[in-house]
Amino acid sequence: MIVNADDLGMTPGANRAIFDGYDKGLITHSSIMANCDYFKEAMEEVATRPNLGLGIHLNLTYGKALIPHRLYCDENGIFNLSYSKLLTLKSASFLAAVEAEWDAQIEHVLQTSPGALSLTHLDSHRHIHLIPHLYPIAIRLAEKYAIRRVRLIQENIIDSFMLTKRFNFILNGGIIKYALLYLFSLYNRQYRNLYQDTKFYSILYTGVVEKKILHKLQHIQDNYEVMVHPSYPEFDKDVHFYDASEKAYRISSDRKKELESVCYPSQKSYHV
Q1: First and final CA of the chain: distance in angstroms?
Q2: pTM of the predicted structure, to 2 decimals
Q3: What pLDDT, on the 0 to 100 scale, is given for residue 161?
Q4: What count of other Cβ atoms lies within 10 Å of the Cβ of residue 97?
Q5: In sequence order, which residues have a C-beta less than 8 Å from that of residue 28 and are 6 or more positions away?
Q6: Does residue 3 register a pLDDT over 90?
Q7: Separation of alpha carbons 30 and 71, rounded Å
Q8: Which of 45, 135, 151, 161 could form a disulfide with 188 if both were Cys (CB 3.0 to 4.6 A apart)?
């Protein structure tokens, strides 16, 4: 079972929680945001944990771009595109700019590492790499940097419901997000599948992964990736956020609950 913590480098609370979840619990991998304000601090801690599987959380929607461009930034170099806007932008110039920015994000991680670093995976903030005209860019970059795994949302809705037996995904919009990303993943898999037979858990229950579910998944024979977003909200209350929705998510008590879910003694398995 892969337990992957997204958003490393975004805030002090996220950084501390992810490393605590690795040191004391079930987290095996993390996805780092190379353009975020607490990236440097995160990389300093990564250097002391050589067995932590590190991937890139490709980004176009939060924080400052590494290569500011009028097609996706405001006048201050801050990303200003919504997910819905990204669905419509398909020009050759836009796709070339995105590839350059994502390439720079990967290079920034590799160049910041004090030693040789093998990246284990690619995914993205808000799952934007799954947008069909952006997915080929992610695949090209994975092949360029010999990255073996690119996230697809291969989540079975029946399996996830039977594991959790909760209907909250209906009220929180999870079913709509699931349907869109699942369909994108089906389409993208025909282009290139670097996720193989790995199953996914937590689009339907994003941000509210429970300890009992992780315990159940540990005893299932299938290969699973579980996405979590742990944090210490108390460390992030005075952090500068680039949008209000991200702040609300980050300082929610659910972040601490997810940390508690991954922090209990158990045997890890280090899949790449």
Answers
A1: 10
A2: 0.95
A3: 87
A4: 20
A5: 1, 2, 3, 4, 22, 52, 53, 268, 269, 270, 271
A6: yes
A7: 29
A8: 135
Please give the CATH topology (third level) of the domain spanning 2-262.
Answer: TIM Barrel (3.20.20)
Residues 99, 115: Cα–Cα separation, whole Å? 25
pLDDT band at 171 (very low <50, low <70, confident <90, very high): low
CA distance 34 to 110: 10
pLDDT at 268 over 80: no
CA distance linking residue 21 with residue 30, whole number of Å: 10
Q: State both tokens at 44.
A: 């300093």
To the nearest 10°, the Cα dihedral for 83, 86, 88, 93?
170
